[in-house]
Structure formats: structure tokens, C-alpha cells
Amino acid sequence: MSIQKNKNRIENTNCIVAEDHIYFPKGYYFKYGYLKDKKKLSFSIINEIRTNTRPITAKINTNEIIFLQGLDEKQCIEIKEKSNISLTTPVDNWSLLCDEFLDTEFSEAQKENVIQLLKENGIDKDEVHQIRKRISSRMLFRTFFSWEWIYYGQFDVLKQLWPMSYKKYWWAMEIALRNKKE
Description:
4-stranded mixed sheet; alpha+beta; 7 strands
């Protein structure tokens, strides 16, 4: 596939920021949540926009992460100014869970730090191992071809959980949304 065709294919899944909503011209990538049969995401149901994920994400209805492919930091600031939606950078559980699948070496101290951060977010060491075991073959297969060494997150995991199902989608959401109990 030529670089231009691949770029066009990716841009076709990008969202567009409108006056009071985010529009998905080709529909939303995953068909198991709020945007199953919709192309518009109203600002009014967005709880926060997470700028530390790739792609940038929106937390909606307190229980779902929506991937805002194509959105950049500047557009997020514009949305915040229009709608007063908070821009946040919570711990990215999926990024931490997927670190070991990157084409990168981590020290034992770094690995222990990751385990501690996940534990603080309600994912203990045993569950970390169970989750990683469940996704390891597909994520390592992806790395074998991509040589990714910087970032994997929830979007990458969901793309690898084929065949996708309602149960897998919401399992990934629940893990993504765990956070420190105040």
C-alpha cells in the first residue's frame, strides 16, 4: 500500500470538531458502546478529555473511553474553551500494562514502579500478570511487525482483541477507568 493511500485510510477515521460536538464522518471505529449507531459525540456528555493517551480520548457517561483519532492538543484547548470540559492526564493503565510488549528494555526498578502504579489504581500484581497473559501473544505479534518502542495503549489492545466482542470491549473499558480511590 502506498504511503499516500495509507495516510488517506487513516485520515478517513479521524474525527472532526464542530461547534457543540465531535463528528465521526465514517462512524466510530468500535461498535459496542455509546457511538454504536451514532456519528456525533455531544460535548454535553463528555466528562473529560485525556490528553496523555494516543489517540487522545474522551471519558463519557463516566464509564466509557472514546478515541478521538486525529485530534491534537490545540483542538483540545479549543474544545475546553467552547465547552468548559476538563483536560486531564490520569494514569494510563493500558499504557502501563502494555509497556512490556514494546521493543524497549526496562530496568527491574522501572518494572516495579509500574506494578506499584497499577496497584494504586486497583490492579494488583496477580491481575497484571493475568491481563498481560491474555493479550501477550497478539501484542508481541504486533510488535514483531511494527517494532513499536514508544507507546501502546487501550486503542492498540482493542484493535488486537479480534474477533472483537461486547464483552472484550467493556472488559478493556473497566480496566482503563480504574483509578485511585480517594
